Amino acid sequence: MATTYKDMLAAAHAAVPKVTAAEAAALVDKVGALIVDVRDGTEVAASGKAKGAVAVPRGSLESRADPDSPNHNAAFRKDRPVILYCAGGGRAALAGKTLRDMGFSDVRNLGGFKDWVAGGGAVEPG
Length: 126
Prior knowledge:
By secondary structure, the chain is an alpha/beta fold. Helices cover 41% and strands 17% of the residues.
């Protein structure tokens, strides 16, 4: 039987713990966690992004996270926590599962950008 989107999302949510905006901010302050915005560039440009977040569209994540890729972004390190968000949390969960599959051990799902804003997180232009 083929895997459905619902199945994939359930597996991603099971593998990637949720984190609140306050918990995410504390991880950034205390241990230098990386916040990653996996929304498309037009979404980031329209609303801004979490202050200090790296904007990497979901479709480019693997090439940015893999140190052997010519497109690697050095901010992705397996020795630091990674916190992901998107518009509603689904893409962030799937992206988190992908990073877990790539060997990143501490990956969290912040949910949506709206959750960051509602939690009082600082925002900067996209």
